[in-house]
Amino acid sequence: MHELSIVMSILDIAEKESAKNNAVQIDEIELEIGELSGIDMPAFDFAWQQAVKSTKLEGAARIVTHIPGEGLCMDCEAVFPMHQLYKPCPVCSHHFITILKGKELRVKSLVIN
Amino acid sequence: MCATCGCDSNASSSIQHIGEHNHPHDHAHEHDHSHSHGKTIVAVEKDILHENNLLAQRNRGYFDAKNILALNLVSSPGSGKTSLLERTLTDMKGEFPFYVIEGDQQTTRDADRIHATGTKVAQINTGKGCHLDAHMILHALQGMKPVENAVLFIENVGNLVCPAMFDLGEKERVVIISVTEGDDKPIKYPDMFHTSTLCIINKVDLLPYVPFSLDKVKEYARQVNPALEFIELSCTSGEGLSGWYQWLKAKVPVTETV
Ligand SMILES: Nc1nc2c(ncn2[C@@H]2O[C@H](COP(=O)(O)OP(=O)(O)O)[C@@H](O)[C@H]2O)c(=O)[nH]1
Ligand SMILES: [Mg+2]
Ligand SMILES: [Zn+2]
Ligand SMILES: [Zn+2]
Ligand SMILES: [Zn+2]
Ligand SMILES: [Zn+2]
Ligand SMILES: [Zn+2]
């Protein structure tokens, strides 16, 4: 359940950013979560419900942009959708792959009050 | 808030330096933030692991400056991390100054086992936390004060999922799998094998008794990480340990005695 640590880090970022802007409440938070970031969304949702209680994020709308995985084959230079770390390059079947997209784990923005 | 130093952190772990009293310590975190006063929408654009990564970089700088080889040992519970350390610290005694940081949810049992080998050790209890993070390591180091040219082993919490995400500032990540776990572990838990540089296959003394293919486990692991190195060994019989000791010696930046 590292998802709880991740949610705690989001809370930390949200608290700091909203305090800098003298906000007492956060209406909305926008997150980017990549397909290969290692986040299990049901576990994330569960951790979220527990952790945001009595914080500025309680009641905030949560907008999650899921970023699909994308790989670059180091052998044949093909760029392809990547849903798993262990799948080979669909063009040449080799495994030397650089992850271009899908590792994202970001707080994009807050709407504060 | 961090209980040990009052820094901005949600750490709820405790650190015990086995065989000595605790040392006071302090540090400050520096951050640059862009301010956007009076606006309703705040563009944050911040990596959620930013804080951990900053502290990991700080640990890495500390290790580099002191020429310390820091290794992060990760595995499922029971794969043999502590056993490997006990063997290594006993067999290589005096060759390098060794230090160990033990991560477990509860108890100082593993730290006590390491302490028995005569090695300086700190135990981090993570409570409900399922992994070590860079902040915990930073505090453990403050009390430990390792000398230059040392080798530091960090035994992470037994868990093949969560520790993969958290950079501690280590030089190398070593994943340990034992032959009783099944040879498809690397594709079931790909992140850990993806982020490690060495895979130790432990308990090879049990190979005659369990259905486990060395070829298969390597094939699966290479699908996730083609550059992964392998060492097969048994902490019980001692078979293969010399390969691990050679690997270690080759990784130490400068050879020097205490
Ligand atoms: N048969 C056999 N048992 C081992 C070997 N290495 C460790 N063990 C046993 O596996 C169990 C777990 O080992 P431990 O080092 O505590 O694992 P950790 O949780 O990864 O630190 C202990 O009972 C060890 O004695 C090995 O090479 N062969
Ligand atoms: Mg252990
Ligand atoms: Zn976890
Ligand atoms: Zn996908
Ligand atoms: Zn290819
Ligand atoms: Zn602290
Ligand atoms: Zn701190």
What would you say this structure looks like, in words?
The complex is a heterodimer of chains A (113) and B (258). In chain A, a hairpin with a 5-residue loop joins β3 (70-73) and β4. Chain A is of the alpha+beta class. In chain A, the strands form two sheets. A three-stranded mixed sheet of chain A has the order 2-1-6, covered by helices on one side. The two termini of chain A are 31 Å apart. Helices cover 27% and strands 32% of the residues of chain A. Chain A has helices at residues 2-20, 41-51, and strands at 26-34, 61-67, 70-73, 79-81, 97-101, 105-112. Chain A is elongated, with a radius of gyration of 17 Å. Chain A is built from two helices and six strands, in the order αβαβββββ. Chain A has a domain at 2-68 and 102-112: 2-Layer Sandwich (hypothetical protein PF0899 fold). Chain B is an alpha/beta fold and 258 residues long. Chain B has a single domain (14-19, 47-248), classed as Rossmann fold (3-Layer(aba) Sandwich), CATH 3.40.50.300. Helices cover 30% and strands 20% of the residues of chain B. In chain B, α1 (50-66) packs parallel to α4. At the A-B interface, α1 and β6 of A face β2, α1, α6 and α7 of B. β6 (105-112) of chain A pairs antiparallel with β2 (41-47) of chain B, so a sheet runs across the interface. The structure holds guanosine-5'-diphosphate, magnesium ion and zinc ion (5 copies).
